[in-house]
Specification:
The protein has about 600 residues and is mainly beta. It has helices at about 20-35, 75-95, 105-110, 185-195, 210-225, 430, 580-585; strands at about 120-125, 130, 140-145, 165-170, 175-180, 240-245, 245-250, 255-260, 265-270, 290, 295-300, 310-315, 320-325, 340, 345-350, 350-355, 365, 375-380, 390, 400-410, 415-425, 440-450, 455-460, 465-470, 480-485, 495-500, 505-510, 515, 520-525, 535-540, 545-555, 560-565, 575-580. It comes from Penstemon davidsonii.
């Protein structure tokens, strides 16, 4: 997952340190002391010396003083907390002498250049616009990403950062504003209160013996009531979806978080959203809204407990229509799925979770080469898991799936056509293999529901295409075009490709020079217009001139029509969405 499946993989020049960070930290610390306890001291960077190599950038200070308050603990809890802190620090100091990172969990790599975290930015109005913003582009473009508040105390993977949303509000002719805000997750708020990272990072830290130790200390803190995991421990850093009046920020380790878009274009976290008490499970990063029925479909995988997978369906009003357990032999990483008119298509790939591997000082995220990948075709109105049909799709690992539809072949057999990007080596985004060997090829997979046989065809070869979307008004229907990030040279995103699925032709828009971007977002012009009538936008970072921009392209020609100059740096990130003015008017406030 640049972005996305490479979400933070880029390697760039060393970051600049935020000069104002220290003074802000000192200012906040003094105000907390005076407002609470004369002996309380909040440190936002307590473990600077843990990292042995070049330092990642100082982390931003973002919460007003009245938001930073020490946790309320009784004397016994304070004693336990202090003892666990000393134990943890001692273990980490010893571990740094022997700990080795691969490039995918090395903080010095994962947080350098434009992957370095930024401070929150309040709304900045009247941004400079080059060109003309199309009249039909009205609303808010939002993009999620990982932005760690604290310097990592061990390993750091690009999936591990605290969720931060960047928003561009288009209001009127050639007018735009910008802001970025952390999503106030329980995890983030609690760590700010304690002045240090206490929740283990799900990928970068939970590996090997040190990961087990970090997990044991976290469990001890939870049992002592020092941290409250009942309120959630997720990052809310990956996906964004607007459904039934709510913008939901999603990661696969917690319930979604409801984030409100204010009239001024600012962002405010409302809190965890459990669909009014109907949802107890985390959702994967890519739920789907059926453009015709407006129903929401999603999955949830559980690493610890059976069933390891569940399927959810909600009607357009947010009422849960289905919660269907799906039996898997072992917990599988399922980041995305596809949806056709009548089915959802669920991947069961070769990347699985085996927590016992940590006992052997290995990562719990495991690639199983002997496992045969398969896709499950499940009717949208299924009432039992026996209604799913599994079809083997050998040697296929697709982190993202762009679209699916139904058609019939010359024999009258129903075929499910799935468009996705197949990645090799399968475990590359976890193992830290060489960038040169990684490939992400957009492919067409055909699942024959009568014969149970699959075929796979590479649509575009010789080009890494990852992260993007089709015209969402046609999701689940046959589409001709998909708009994807050109991740060449991997893992940087050098441009946007409009892929013609019929011919394999790619119309490219290249950012040029040392300018790199992320996931493109398609914004339809009007509901009545054709598939390619709309606009494509993406954040872009000019690494040479150290400026950030938003480019807007006409989808039919892939020519730039506008460029919005941004007042602050926007790091590379994950996934985004666009919220129209009509949707903004129907926002829910709870």
């Amino acid at each position: 997952m640049s972005l996305l499946v490479s979400h933070h993989l880029f390697t760039t020049t060393p970051p600049k340190i935020h000069d104002q960070f220290l003074s802000l930290k000192q200012k906040h610390t003094k105000k907390v002391q005076s407002a609470t306890s004369p002996t309380c001291k909040i440190q936002l960077n307590p473990f600077k010396e843990i990292l042995p190599r070049k330092q990642p950038p100082a982390q931003p200070s973002i919460f007003p003083p009245d938001y930073i308050s020490p946790p309320e603990m009784n004397p016994l809890q304070k004693l336990i907390a202090s003892s666990l802190d000393m134990l943890e620090e001692s273990i980490l100091r010893k571990a740094k002498e022997t700990q080795k990172f691969n490039r995918m969990n090395d903080p010095a790599i994962q947080l350098e250049g434009n992957h370095a975290p930024v401070q929150e930015s309040p709304v900045r109005h009247d941004l400079q616009v080059v060109g003309t913003i199309p009249k039909s582009v009205q609303g808010v473009y939002l993009r999620n990403g990982g932005n760690p508040l604290f310097t990592p105390i061990s390993g750091h993977h690009f999936f591990d950062g605290d969720g931060m949303i960047h928003a561009i509000n288009f209001v009127g002719e050639d007018r735009a504003s910008y802001c970025c805000r952390f999503t106030r997750t329980n995890r983030l708020v609690r760590e700010v209160e304690m002045g240090k990272p206490v929740f283990p990072k799900p990928i970068g830290e939970l590996s090997g013996h040190l990961g087990l130790t970090r997990l044991a200390i976290f469990v001890a803190r939870a049992l002592a009531g020092v941290v409250n995991i009942i309120r959630g421990s997720g990052l809310a850093n990956a996906g964004l979806i607007y459904f039934n009046g709510r913008l939901l920020a999603i990661s696969e380790d917690d319930l979604p978080y409801h984030v409100q878009i204010t009239k001024d274009g600012d962002l405010e976290t409302i809190g965890r959203f459990n669909f009014n008490g109907q949802l107890k499970d985390a959702l994967i990063a890519h739920p789907k809204v059926d453009p015709i029925t407006k129903d929401l479909y999603s999955l949830s995988y559980n690493v610890l407990l059976k069933p390891h997978l569940k399927f959810f369906k909600f009607d357009k009003w947010g009422n849960k229509l289905s919660e269907l357990p799906i039996s898997l032999k072992e917990p599988t990483m399922i980041h995305d799925f596809a949806m056709s008119e009548n089915y959802v298509i669920i991947p069961d790939h070769q990347v699985v979770f085996k927590l016992c591997e940590m006992m052997w000082d290995k990562s719990p995220v495991v690639y199983k080469p002997n496992k045969v990948s398969r896709f499950g075709v499940l009717p949208k109105d299924a009432t039992h898991e026996s209604m799913i049909q599994w079809i083997d799709v050998p040697d296929c690992f697709c982190f993202h799936m762009w679209n699916a539809w139904e058609e019939y072949n010359e024999h009258g057999d129903k075929i499910i056509v799935v468009i996705n990007s197949c990645m090799t080596p399968v475990d590359s985004i976890f193992s830290g293999g060489a960038d040169e060997s990684l490939k992400s090829q957009i492919s067409e997979i055909r699942l024959n529901l009568k014969t149970g046989i699959s075929t796979r065809r590479v649509i575009v070869s010789g080009m890494n295409l990852e992260a993007g979307m089709v015209n969402k008004q046609l999701l689940g229907q046959r589409t001709r075009y998909v708009y994807l990030a050109i991740a060449d040279p991997w893992p940087k995103v050098s441009g946007i490709g409009k892929v013609d699925l019929d011919t394999g032709h790619v119309t490219k828009y290249l950012f040029g020079g040392q300018r790199f971007g992320g996931e493109p977002c398609f914004v339809p012009a009007n509901e009545e217009d054709g598939e390619e009538e709309g606009f494509v936008m993406s954040f872009v970072r000019d690494e040479e001139n150290e400026t950030s921009e938003l480019v807007v392209l006409k989808a039919s020609s892939m020519e730039q029509v506008a460029l919005v100059k941004l007042p602050t740096r926007v790091p590379y990130g994950f996934h985004g969405t666009f919220v129209s003015p009509e949707e903004l008017e129907k926002q829910a406030f709870n």
